Amino acid sequence: MTNAHVPHWRAWLAVAAGGLAGTELRYGLGLAFPETVGAMPWTTLGINVTGSFVLAALTTVWMARPQTAFWLRAGLAPGFLGSFTTFSAVVFSSDQLSRAGEHPVWMAYLGLSLLLGLGGAAGGWRTGRLLTDRLQGDRAGTAP
C-alpha cells in the first residue's frame, strides 16, 4: 500500500542535494566575508535578505506555473534556500551580540532582519510577477 501524499524519491534527493549546496554556499560566503565579533553581522543579514527575495520570486512564478516539477520546487525552496537562509543564524548572532553586551547592535540587527527580510520578499514577489507576466507574454507571442 502506498501513500499518495508521500513525495517521490526524487523530491527527497533534491532536498538533500539542495540542502548540501545551500549550506556550502552559505559557509563559503561566511569565509569570504567574515563577520567581526561584536559588530553587525552583515553577511548573515545579506544572505537571509537575498534568500527571502529569491524564495518569494520563485514561489510567485511557481504559483502561476504550477506544472513546475515538485522535485525541483522541493530541491530549490526547502532544500537549497532552507539551508542557505536560516532563522537559527539570526538567533545565534543576536544571542552572541547580547552576551557581549552589544544591545544596540543586536536590537538593530533584529529590526533590520525583519524589515529587510520583508522588503526582500516584497521585491521578490514583484520580480516574480514581472517574470510571470513576461513568460506569459512570450507564450502568447505578444512580447517584443
From TrEMBL:
Keywords, comma-separated and alphabetical: Cell membrane, Ion channel, Ion transport, Membrane, Metal-binding, Sodium, Transmembrane, Transmembrane helix, Transport
Membrane topology: Multi-pass membrane protein
Residues annotated to bind Na(+): G82, T85
Summary of activators and inhibitors of this protein: Na(+) is not transported, but it plays an essential structural role and its presence is essential for fluoride channel function.
InterPro entries reported for this sequence: FluC (IPR003691)
Keyword flag Plastid: no
Localisation: Cell membrane
Ranges that cross the membrane: 12-33, 45-64, 76-94, 106-125
Catalytic activity field: fluoride(in) = fluoride(out)
Similarity annotation: Belongs to the fluoride channel Fluc/FEX (TC 1.A.43) family.
Function: Fluoride-specific ion channel. Important for reducing fluoride concentration in the cell, thus reducing its toxicity.
Protein name: Fluoride-specific ion channel FluC
Organism of derivation: Pseudarthrobacter humi
